[in-house]
Task: inverse folding
């Protein structure tokens, strides 16, 4: 293959990739553009750059959405921490401990991966009402964690199985208890996989919309995704929507995941590209 | 030896004892269940949404005012007569002695109707929206509270029986309810500022008490010497004639409920408080809450007749609550949790003791217990995990499969009302139509989802894979995955904005290009709505699929590529012959994930069109959601879930098997 041909190919590849990239960013750029414009500016000339820039849109949007944002961050953080702890626990128990019924119990967890959420949606909705959890954060946390830990345990077990057994055996000889062996040896060695679990579950929980919509009623307890939707439909219903502020709210709701992604993108991308998830 | 025999006997005694206790618990529990069912559903059915009601014992007739402008009288569940007005009925007052019925309607009229045949004897035009009416015992005077909301004006109007206006008292605060005092010289009303005010007929304020909450209902006790003002938050005040607070209390309103109506039984024992989300709370005369239940939906009126309370609300239902048995309910509610647990615990205990008595099983149990103890650490560490999955996953799964065959609904929500209906729910899927439409759409969604996920992500992965420098690769990878930070709800709403007919990106761009003829109401047109939803997410760079495929390419053996190149294979051939076959496992996984994801997903449809226009974008998942939440048809929703689950299982199994054969 000639060098010239090689370069031409590289250029074609780059051009096509850039086209895809630009197309993928069209909605995001539209969102950013609209969020800085007033209604008059949007209806006047849709494509024009905002002049003057309407920073007040962000004041309005953040003012309305900040309580829900705090709710989201808190409830997602609580749920993620519990999920991580249970994943590490379960992963360790199934990877390194021996006990009767181990396979059956692990199968019980694994089988849940095959169960679609729509099957359990209705009974869970009734269940949280029976348990008097309706309209509380527990109605979000318990179902999230109970389902979210399944994948976490699976990942952690796969990872922790590869930690040499001798490490634990020698530690136990030195009088280390099972709990200590886990917290002092297994967990530090599995930091990377636990971080993957944390990032994935955070994105999952933060993104959830239907379940909070069903199980939380008061706006003071509601998470950001539902609050955004409520704001949007309220704007649609009255007809005189402040589109700029609404889109500023969209941007605001995007910020937490954006920050998370900036710090953990390498981890997230590596986790998925490495063979951790393969058919 | 003798000691052992004693032991054996002890086990037997314990087993029998537990069995007896178990039997007692089960019977007691069944009895308790009966005494807790104090809500009876009446046979009266208007076929439309009810609003207010009244009952006359001497005629044994129930009068129902509806939202759909009708006033209907029922006797023994049979319709006696009906009468039409122009607005929803607000309040009905009966004067059985002279056979007159006074009905306040939102069409600004107070109708005076003959109770026996429904003929309108007279109507009073108030020219304002009516909130409440009150009538003196002799029927000579009618007081009406009204408001013109747009002008922020409220009035209390007094009329004589012929409709002649006697008095017009003007206010700027909306008055929700009003009643005459016992001597009928004065009036008491509540307003939306949370005040209870007593006035004389000239409008002079005689007494005032204010709660710290918005008032919603004002009741008069049967003796007429006490008044109860109830706030939207469930707090209430018992007041005497001069508005001195006799006692106060608060119902523990859960689930963010807002009180809409309250009621008293005529014995004066209990206060009933109903909420907008359909809960009913009962307070006794020591202000403690003794009972709460869930009714079909929002409570709009209550009426005490002796010990019974008739309740109606938004919907076609009238429930009767027998307050006579409420005294036992208190005890039953406290006892029930214990007996409920006990009826499961004691049979297990009985079985356990029996096993301990029989030598064979005795040995087995001991071995089992020893093993459990030896490995206790592992089990203890797994307790939280399994507690969660059993309560929040396995219980719902079993419930879904069992209740899919029942008439379980928001209304039929107690053990005694849920009944087995066989395959009724599954038959309904095929007769009702929505499900079949949904399956048709789902099929289109599935096919397009496969096409989307098998083209662009592979292509983009290949592009990035073909780039030379690692830095460039990383930059592109980062940027291509970056859009996942937009929450899916925001993304969907953003696309909804893009499709907006006037200020959406697509129509604006078409307008700029001079292609106005191509502009559409994308989501509002049956012809385009489905495809607009499918097009959402263009250019379909699925981050997960992209990264997985990219990882697959990276795993391809370098020596294989070298060998192919040495044989003179070009890029095209290498891509088709080597790279693609090598990522087959990844493709299989992505196909399964896409399949499971698409079958369940209704977020996009829900946010963009809600299934419309018409039913053109319905999917089974959305149908399930609507039935579980809006329609409260839980059994049917479970059946839909079961069908979707089986569908996913069968196709996943086929896929797995097929790719196993291919290997």
Result:
């Amino acid at each position: 293959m000639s060098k010239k041909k090689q370069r031409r190919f590289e250029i074609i590849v780059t051009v096509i990739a850039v086209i895809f990239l630009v197309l993928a960013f069209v909605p995001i750029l539209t969102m950013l553009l609209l969020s800085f414009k007033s209604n008059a500016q949007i209806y006047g000339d849709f494509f024009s750059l905002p002049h003057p820039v309407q920073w007040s849109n962000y004041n309005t949007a953040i003012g309305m959405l900040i309580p829900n944002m705090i709710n989201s961050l808190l409830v997602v953080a609580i749920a993620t921490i519990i999920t991580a702890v249970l994943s590490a626990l379960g992963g360790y128990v199934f990877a390194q401990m021996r006990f009767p019924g181990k396979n059956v119990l692990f199968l019980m967890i694994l089988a849940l991966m095959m169960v679609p959420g729509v099957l359990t949606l209705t009974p869970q909705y009734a269940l949280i009402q029976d348990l008097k959890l309706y309209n509380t954060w527990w109605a979000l946390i318990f179902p999230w964690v109970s389902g979210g830990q399944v994948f976490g345990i699976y990942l952690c077990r796969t990872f922790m199985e590869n930690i040499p057994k001798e490490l634990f055996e020698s530690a136990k000889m030195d009088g280390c208890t099972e709990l200590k062996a886990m917290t002092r040896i297994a967990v530090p060695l599995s930091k990377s996989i636990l971080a993957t679990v944390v990032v994935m579950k955070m994105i999952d929980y933060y993104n959830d919309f239907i379940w909070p919509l069903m199980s939380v009623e008061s706006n003071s307890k509601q998470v950001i995704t539902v609050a955004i939707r409520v704001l949007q439909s309220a704007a649609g219903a009255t007809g005189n929507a402040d589109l700029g502020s609404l889109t500023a709210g969209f941007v605001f709701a995007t910020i937490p995941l954006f920050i998370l992604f900036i710090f953990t993108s390498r981890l997230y991308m590596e986790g998925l590209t490495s063979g951790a998830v393969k058919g | 030896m003798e000691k052992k025999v004693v032991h054996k006997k002890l086990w037997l005694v314990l087993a029998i004892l537990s069995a007896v206790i178990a039997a007692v618990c089960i019977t007691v529990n069944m009895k308790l269940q009966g005494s807790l069912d104090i809500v009876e559903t009446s046979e009266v059915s208007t076929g439309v949404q009810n609003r207010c009601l009244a009952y006359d014992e001497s005629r044994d007739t129930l009068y129902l005012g509806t939202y759909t402008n009708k006033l209907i009288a029922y006797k023994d569940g049979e319709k006696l007569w009906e009468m039409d007005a122009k607005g929803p009925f607000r309040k009905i007052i009966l004067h059985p002695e002279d056979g007159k019925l006074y009905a306040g309607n939102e069409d600004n009229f107070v109708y005076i109707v003959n109770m026996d045949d429904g003929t309108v004897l007279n109507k009073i035009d108030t020219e304002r929206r009516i909130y409440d009416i009150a009538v003196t015992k002799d029927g000579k005077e009618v007081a009406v509270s009204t408001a013109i909301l747009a002008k922020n004006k409220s009035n209390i109007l007094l009329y004589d029986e012929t409709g002649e206006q006697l008095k017009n008292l003007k206010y700027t605060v909306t008055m929700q309810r009003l009643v005459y005092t016992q001597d009928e010289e004065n009036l008491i009303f509540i307003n939306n500022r949370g005040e209870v005010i007593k006035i004389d007929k000239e409008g002079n304020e005689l007494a005032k008490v204010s709660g710290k909450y918005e008032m919603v209902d004002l009741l008069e006790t049967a003796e007429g010497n006490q008044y109860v003002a109830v706030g939207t938050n469930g707090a209430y005040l018992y007041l005497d004639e001069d508005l001195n607070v006799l006692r106060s209390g608060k119902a523990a309103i859960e689930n963010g409920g807002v009180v809409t109506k309250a009621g008293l039984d005529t014995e004066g024992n209990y206060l009933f408080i109903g909420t907008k989300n359909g809960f009913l709370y009962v307070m006794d005369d020591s202000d403690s809450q003794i009972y709460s239940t869930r009714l079909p939906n929002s409570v709009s009126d209550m009426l005490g007749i002796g010990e019974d309370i008739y309740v109606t609300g938004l919907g076609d239902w009238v429930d009767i609550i027998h307050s006579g048995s409420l005294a036992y309910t208190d005890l039953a509610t406290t006892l029930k949790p214990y007996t409920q647990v006990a009826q499961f615990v004691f049979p297990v205990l009985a079985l356990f003791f029996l096993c301990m008595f029989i030598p064979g099983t005795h040995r087995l149990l001991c071995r089992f217990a020893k093993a459990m103890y030896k490995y206790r650490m592992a089990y203890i560490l797994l307790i939280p995990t399994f507690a969660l999955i059993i309560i929040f996953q396995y219980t719902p799964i079993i419930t879904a499969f069992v209740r899919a065959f029942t008439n379980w609904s928001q209304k039929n929500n107690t053990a005694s009302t849920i009944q087995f209906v066989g395959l009724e729910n599954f038959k309904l899927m095929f007769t009702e139509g929505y499900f079949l439409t949904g399956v048709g759409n789902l099929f289109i969604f599935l096919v397009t989802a496969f096409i989307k996920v098998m083209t662009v992500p592979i292509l983009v992965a290949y592009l990035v894979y073909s780039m030379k420098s690692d830095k460039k690769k990383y930059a592109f990878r980062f940027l291509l995955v970056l859009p996942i930070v937009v929450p899916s709800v925001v993304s969907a709403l953003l696309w909804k904005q893009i499709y907006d007919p006037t200020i959406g990106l697509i129509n604006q761009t078409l307008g700029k290009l001079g292609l106005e003829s191509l502009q559409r109401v994308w989501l509002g047109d049956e012809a385009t709505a489905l495809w607009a939803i499918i097009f959402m997410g263009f250019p379909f760079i699925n981050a997960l699929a992209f990264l997985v495929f990219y990882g697959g390419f990276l795993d391809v053996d370098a020596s294989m590529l070298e060998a192919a190149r040495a044989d003179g294979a070009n890029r095209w051939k290498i891509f088709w012959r080597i790279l693609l076959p090598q990522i087959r496992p990844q493709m299989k996984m992505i196909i399964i994930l896409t399949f499971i994801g698409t079958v369940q997903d209704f977020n996009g449809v829900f946010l963009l069109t809600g299934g419309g226009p018409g039913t053109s974008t319905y999917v089974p998942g959305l149908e399930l959601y609507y039935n579980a939440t809006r329609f409260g048809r839980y059994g049917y929703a479970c059946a839909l879930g079961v069908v979707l689950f089986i569908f996913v299982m069968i196709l996943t199994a086929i896929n797995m098997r097929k790719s196993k054969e291919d290997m």
Observations:
- The mean pLDDT of chain A is 87.
- Chain A touches chain B through 97 residues (CB under 8 Å).
- Chain A has one domain: 36-277.
- The radius of gyration of chain A is 24 Å.
